[in-house]
Amino acid sequence: MTLTTPAAETVLSEWHVISPLSHLRTTPTDTMLLDRHITFGHDADGAPFACDVAERRSLPVQARHGCLWTCLGTPRGDIPAITETMEPDRRVVDCGVITVRTSAPRIVENFLDMAHFPFVHTNILGAEPDTEVARYNIELREDGNEVWATDCHFYQPQAALSAAGGIETEYLYRVASPFVTLLYKTCPTQPERFDIITLFVQPMTQETSRAHPVMFLIDDVSPQADLIQFQQTIFLQDRIILENQRPRRLPLSSGAEIPTMADRMSVAYRRWLRDRGVQYGTTA
After folding, report:
1. Pick the CATH number of 10-70 from 2.20.25.680, 3.30.930.10, 1.10.10.10, 3.40.50.2300
2. Distance CA 94, CA 91 (A)
3. CATH fold for domain 83-276
4. What is the mean pLDDT of each run of 10 residues along the chain (284 residues)?
């Protein structure tokens, strides 16, 4: 297998989402992954497949978390587990696919940022004058293979579609692989449990990505279409910001951008990428 740098590095051994399962067809669909042209779909028996077009070879595939995953190299591990998805009262909400003209690490970093809530998601995830990001904790878990932010709290006027009013929301952020990130947040109807919002980012090229948001919610009332629209509204607000950031690739060198106390998770994510040797979509 011949690959050009910088794609020939650690991200080749990672599992990447390339499609919601609901989008699979018997007629192959074209997409890009790490600068490679691939096709995917399912056969007449319903079995999913993915192929590297240039090399005319089949790729490993798995159906997990409502999506189709593949790997361009030799998988070094399994797809990140989300144990809560097995709970029978959780709804799986596939929020579609959104193309963004920026790198995959930029999208992940934006997902981890609470400071922009009052200014980008005004009167939904935040509002002035409640703009302070309280100090939170950073942890490495799973032998350093995951980075977490815990004890995050933020006042939100409408934390979820099911929220009847503003609440103090607790967040847990989890980066499970370079382009897979999850948010565990207070469920408005059952505050002792967390709703889970995942963002699976497909790195098409160095500076173009597809975002696959999937939610696992405790909400048996809201119409599916309304839940999807709520999440898409938030992400499309983010896309405007993301596509105007320069450089499009995420800088990993220290001092390239000046962080604040609210950016501790961003700093941890960049350091974690650098320590893992991830170069794709960065200026490392």
Report:
1. 2.20.25.680
2. 10
3. Naphthalene 1,2-dioxygenase Alpha Subunit; Chain A, domain 1 (3.90.380)
4. 50 97 95 98 95 97 98 94 94 96 96 74 63 84 96 75 71 96 91 94 98 95 92 88 94 69 83 94 88
